[in-house]
Amino acid sequence: MASIEERLEGIERRLENIERSFEEVNAALDSLARALARLLESDSASWAMKTLASCSDSLYKALTGSREAGLPDLVRALGDPEFRRGLGALIASLRAVGSCTGSPGE
Asked: Which of 51, 53, 56, 82 is the most exposed place for a label (fewest CB within 10 A)?
């Protein structure tokens, strides 16, 4: 059986990994914002940049405070208008990024 110190070290390592992951997500969001701005090249680009910039802190807080979720959580979340708007924006963003990345092997 692991000692308390070993357990705490394990927890600390996991938390460090989670923190690095969130930093990578934040960097990815910044990259996504830049990519969307280049794709849109209109007033929408300015809106997208402002939206993503204003959301980055909220996203970080949500991710750092998140817990594991299952299908029942997803079903409940679909009843939330903010969640549906966010999901719609995420889907549209992924489509935009996918459309400019090309096919594998290109």
From this structure: 82
